[in-house]
Design a protein that fits this description.
By secondary structure, the chain is an alpha+beta fold. The chain has four domains: 106 residues, no CATH class; 100 residues, no CATH class; 45 residues; 101 residues, Roll (Chitinase A, domain 3). The chain has 15 helices and seven strands. The strands form two sheets. A four-stranded antiparallel β-sheet has the order 4-3-6-5, sandwiched between helices. A three-stranded antiparallel β-sheet has the order 2-1-7, with helices on both faces. A hairpin with a 2-residue loop joins strand 1 and strand 2. Helix 4 crosses helix 5, helix 7 runs antiparallel to helix 8 and helix 11 packs across helix 15. The two termini are 24 Å apart.
Length: 388
């Protein structure tokens, strides 16, 4: 409760003016520190006598309707709703006329999660790196559409994080200062081993430790993987645990020469394609035109695994049968043509040799499913109001 009050107080101060009401007229002690900072030049809603109602929107239209108007039309609507829930209707009636006259805000509430708020500035901070990446790829209306979609994704991550931290506090799941100290020392000695967003600060890292612990307590300790499930999983997906399939490939690759544009490289590739269509030998053309390291071997890459290839080449390989040639493929490094010579299928590995790998894969799948179910249940029981 105290944490929420301080968030609300900071938000109220961001209104750009102080609230000119005497603390004595506020029924709620939580509002008095806000109201005590009265401003000059603003009109207050004072009672003319003890029996007279305030002449604000709550009297003219009814309190419920006034609350709805502020929830939809005012950037301070959620502040009013939270304060009214904390302090009662009388406090809201007294403060509505003042907030109605407030100036434009430099910040506002982006979402409410139970007893916590997410400010737009917090969301903007989390979006800063994403905006840079989006601007590098999109512009105009497409940028705006991608930005809006990413904004909701990032906001959802913040909401999920806060919900889990709230659950940890409710269950009294914590980490000690000593545990944080020891873990933080490991981070400092090898920061590359951790995602950058986890180690932005010591406080963020502590939260990450709490999140991991609450997941272990609520989800991980309940996961069991019986031997029978491991064996059945292997038998149903035996081919997935086979040795990798290998492909005997030949390649011609054309790369830009000094002072040569990609358009000129494409023209060379079109000439090469016409020669191949006319029946010229792939290996001979590779030895003449290819810029790859296997040029002298007629472009022979020998046996390779699909994972060793660039993504566009993997996609082209999927469409080939032995003896077939791909069309020209463009990648970041140049233009490619592939010839598939032979496919060497992988062979299944014995269960005993891959049992640990099967168990790990099955455990991770169960963990993901259970975590997703648990997080969905947390969301279902939480009050979440997104105000973007």
């Amino acid at each position: 409760m105290t944490c929420l009050f301080y968030q609300l107080r900071r938000f109220a101060r961001s209104l750009g003016q102080r609230l000119p009401l005497a603390p004595s007229v506020m029924p709620c002690p939580l509002l008095r520190p806000l109201v005590a900072r009265g401003a000059r030049g603003m009109h207050s809603c004072e009672r003319r006598n003890p029996g007279e109602e305030c002449q604000g929107p709550a009297r003219r239209h009814g309190l419920a309707q006034a609350r709805r108007q502020f929830m939809t039309r005012s950037k301070t609507g959620m502040l009013l709703a939270i304060l009214s829930g904390l302090c009662g209707i009388g406090s809201l009636t007294a403060v509505v006329p003042v907030l109605q006259a407030s100036a434009q805000l430099s910040d506002r509430i982006a979402a409410v999660i139970n007893t916590e708020v997410i400010m737009l500035s917090e969301l903007d901070d989390a979006m800063s790196d994403e905006i840079i990446r989006l601007r590098a790829r999109y512009d105009g209306e497409e940028f705006e559409a991608q930005l809006l979609q990413k904004q909701y994704q990032v906001l959802n991550r913040i909401i999920e994080r806060k919900i889990q931290l709230q659950e940890a506090r409710e269950k009294e799941i914590t980490v000690t200062d000593d545990e944080v100290d020891k873990a933080w020392e490991q981070v400092q000695s090898n920061p590359e081993a951790y995602p950058p967003e986890f180690i932005r600060s010591r406080d963020v890292f502590r939260e990450e430790m709490v999140l991991r612990r609450v997941a272990e307590f609520e989800v991980q300790r309940r996961i069991l993987v019986p031997f029978e499930e491991i064996r059945d999983y292997y038998q149903e997906r035996e081919q997935e645990f086979a040795t990798p399939t290998e492909y005997h490939l030949y390649q011609i690759v054309l790369q830009p020469k000094p002072d040569e544009s990609m358009e000129e490289v494409r023209e060379r590739a079109e000439t090469l394609e016409r020669q191949l269509q006319a029946g010229a030998s792939f290996e001979k053309l590779a030895s003449i035109y290819s810029d790859g390291p296997t040029k002298d071997q007629g472009g022979d890459l020998e046996f390779v695994q699909k994972e060793d290839l660039m993504e566009p080449l993997r996609a082209a390989l999927d469409a080939l049968e032995p003896g077939e040639r791909s069309p020209v493929i463009e990648t970041d490094i140049g233009m490619h043509v592939l010839l598939l010579g032979e496919i060497r299928k992988g062979t299944p590995q014995p269960f005993d040799e891959v049992k640990d790998e099967v168990e790990k894969r099955l455990y991770q799948k169960k963990m993901r499913d259970a975590y997703s179910t648990w997080l969905s249940a947390l969301k279902d029981k939480s009050y979440i109001n997104i105000l973007l």
